[in-house]
Design brief:
alpha/beta
Amino acid sequence: MRIGIYGGSFNPIHKGHTELAASIVQQGLVDELWLLVSPLNPLKQDATSDIAEYEHRLNMARLATEPIVGVKVSDFERHLPLPSYTITTLGELRKAYPEHEFVLVIGADNWEQFPHWYHAQEIIDTYSILIYRRPGSQLDESALPSSVQVVDTPLYDVSSTQIRDSVKKGRMMRRWLDARVARYIKKHQLYR
């Protein structure tokens, strides 16, 4: 099977994440999409002050993706040494599941930062990459390597940071949250 790997903090997961994941599967770009909940993002190590515990983020991701066909949540990176760089994660996935082809799924904002990723060129040379558009990010599609494809998915102008900030102010952006995730945030008093 062709498996899309969509990693992130998912702090918290929101409808922008889940609708994007569903769109990629529905378009047949991958057979399944695995949301990899990252214990620690090497490029965001200084921004961990308002990060929910890993178990909470994993639970919220599972709640939000439960009804979505072809989208699964994985805690694979939890079992790898920290920080787990993308090249390491993809290599370990390949060893653990040699029957699958793994495809990296990232946003255009991450593509702008891609030269700073650990072993970025090796990722480009070894794996296919699907890039989804992000508001405010520009892509020069003519300059993309042959292993990189821009996918046509809806644009979602929302971020987990905005959701966390709204919760801190006593509001919740329910329009962007699965109802079960909103209840989970409230029950566990996350992001307060």
